[in-house]
């Protein structure tokens, strides 16, 4: 199971959209570390690969990492509501 799978899951493996996007926002602000996010969500090695892709995308976003954090929130909310597929999530996050 990957991070995208967990964002789109409907069982107890689910990562909530609001909490995850809040964690990314605070990471971008320098208030949380990657390690804190990994520990908080008990991320697997597979999850960490996708987390690193998201972090890298935020760092190169031409409109800034905070706006990318908002993009992650928007995509995660749509995924949580079942309005986008896991494949669409990856595309919408540019990873």
Detailed description of the structure:
Helix content is 67%, strand content 0%. By secondary structure, it is mostly helical. It has one domain (3-92). The two termini are 16 Å apart.
Summarize the structure.
This protein has six helices and no strands. By secondary structure, it is mostly helical.
Morphology: globular
Q: Output the structural class.
A: mainly alpha
What share of residues are in beta strands?
A: under 5%
Unreliable stretches covering 5 or more consecutive residues:
none
The total of helices stands at: 6
- Based on DSSP secondary structure assignment, what is the total number of beta strands? 0
Order of helices and strands: HHHHHH
Helix content: 55-70%
The overall pLDDT average reads 88
Largest sheet: none
Q: What's the gyration radius in Å?
A: 12 Å
Instruction: Report the span from N to C terminus.
Output: 16 Å
Total count of domains:
1
